[in-house]
Task: inverse folding
């Protein structure tokens, strides 16, 4: 049995982003694939005309240290929020792309790298709508409808949410947290070592995408032996995919808004129910209400959707790049249902950088595929959530997940766990709790019937799948 009396990671420190790999990248003897072009081993995707495409560091290099820049013949003007983010992080993305372009003898590794490059190269940054601009920076679009992602202060988000606004795009919420900056990744790993040594976790290899199971004691020992900021060194233990919410960080205030408490309300109803044998019914979907994501340099999630079609994540430490593909057509979803984690966005992915304390809301009911990258060690906390104002869209998304469950792991387990939630949702509706969006009485009645029809259809599909 592994002994857990000592602390193998307690005295570790983490090097700044890519510091460990920068020397390798600049080595005269290293051999790299060129930036992928048509005809190369890794095919370069065509440039989307309507997305901010970064092919040169010209503007960014001029403005990296200055929030203002001067165009020839133009007055001094402030950078957009997008340009500011590019100035801070374009080098991290470029280094990641260069690292993925290196040759490798393994076809599995080359295939996995090609998938990542399909998301990352050429760089297509999400078009940003920002509010308020005087605090966050100016938008790069004329209309909110033209944006790929919204950046809102907490105050602005609350106004939208309390007015019943339906969010149609991912939202990055800028909120101040009392516990900001108090989460150290090495301390977190040491906490795992001390408290949960026997717990089994799924660990992903960033080189191939393969997952393996190991105890947290074994995992922590492996972490103690590698350079956590080197993608090559950390490849075998690059990310843990099934951690519960162990950091217990302050939650974003959006989780306190009544409209976003629906899933947690149903979880309490399910947990508090008693089965025919008189025992309290427990349900593992409650674990989705809170989770941690621990990643080291080079970690890549693969392509995925939220199984409960709505989530939030907060960046506690480090940096995460989220690539998101929305507005997908039927053919895109057909391909995803067949390819799952190996799905290629085909020019539709947009890059969103999550800095410390950024909260990314994937609005409940929004159908989107995304992938995440860790250019440096990163700790995230998050959870699934539902929105009372988007129940029809949530049911539609769940229906797709159930009908195409082959892309998910342990799909039968998921179906069994979801059934009690659907029953609890219908009971919640029958208790006249449903308010939904602000609308006329006739519209409310019609939406209520739509929700009831959606529940019946989803329940029937779930039972057929057992």
Result:
């Amino acid at each position: 049995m592994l002994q857990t009396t000592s602390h193998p990671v307690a005295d570790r420190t983490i090097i700044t982003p890519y510091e460990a790999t920068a020397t390798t990248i600049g080595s005269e003897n290293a051999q790299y694939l060129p930036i992928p072009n048509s005809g190369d081993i890794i095919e370069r995707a065509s440039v989307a005309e309507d997305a901010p495409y970064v092919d040169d560091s010209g503007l960014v290099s001029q403005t990296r240290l200055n929030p203002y820049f001067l165009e020839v013949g133009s007055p001094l003007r402030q950078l957009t929020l997008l340009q500011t983010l590019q100035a801070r992080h374009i080098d991290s993305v470029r280094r990641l792309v260069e690292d993925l372009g290196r040759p490798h003898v393994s076809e599995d590794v080359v295939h996995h790298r090609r998938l990542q490059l399909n998301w990352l190269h050429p760089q297509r940054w999400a078009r940003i709508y920002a509010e308020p601009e005087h605090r966050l920076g100016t938008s790069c679009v004329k209309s909110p409808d033209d944006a790929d992602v919204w950046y809102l202060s907490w105050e602005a988000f609350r106004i939208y949410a309390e007015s019943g606004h339906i969010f149609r795009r991912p939202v990055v919420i800028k909120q101040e947290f009392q516990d900001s900056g108090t989460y150290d990744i090495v301390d977190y790993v040491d906490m795992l070592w001390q408290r949960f040594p026997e717990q089994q976790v799924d660990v992903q290899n960033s080189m191939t995408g393969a997952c393996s199971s190991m105890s947290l004691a074994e995992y922590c020992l492996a972490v103690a032996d590698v350079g956590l900021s080197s993608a090559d060194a950390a490849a075998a233990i690059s990310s843990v995919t099934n951690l519960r919410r162990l950091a217990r960080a302050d939650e974003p205030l959006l989780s306190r808004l009544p409209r976003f408490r629906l899933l947690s309300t149903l979880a309490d109803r399910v947990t508090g129910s008693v089965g025919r044998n008189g025992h309290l019914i427990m349900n593992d979907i409650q674990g989705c209400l809170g989770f941690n994501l621990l990643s080291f340099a080079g970690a890549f999630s693969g392509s995925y959707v939220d199984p409960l079609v709505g989530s939030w994540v907060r960046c506690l430490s480090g940096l995460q790049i989220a690539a998101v593909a929305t507005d997908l057509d039927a053919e895109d979803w057909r391909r995803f249902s067949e390819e799952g984690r190996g799905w290629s966005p085909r020019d539709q992915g947009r890059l969103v950088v999550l800095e410390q304390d950024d909260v990314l809301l994937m609005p409940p009911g929004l159908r989107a595929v995304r992938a995440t990258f860790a250019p440096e060690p990163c700790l995230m906390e998050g959870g699934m959530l539902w929105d009372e104002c988007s129940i029809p869209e949530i049911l539609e998304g769940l229906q797709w997940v159930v009908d195409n469950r082959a892309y998910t792991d342990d799909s039968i387990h998921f179906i069994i766990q979801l059934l009690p939630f659907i029953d609890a949702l219908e009971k919640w509706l029958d208790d006249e709790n449903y308010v939904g969006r602000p609308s006329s009485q006739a519209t409310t009645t019609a939406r209520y019937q739509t929700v009831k029809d959606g529940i019946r259809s989803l329940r029937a599909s779930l039972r057929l799948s057992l």
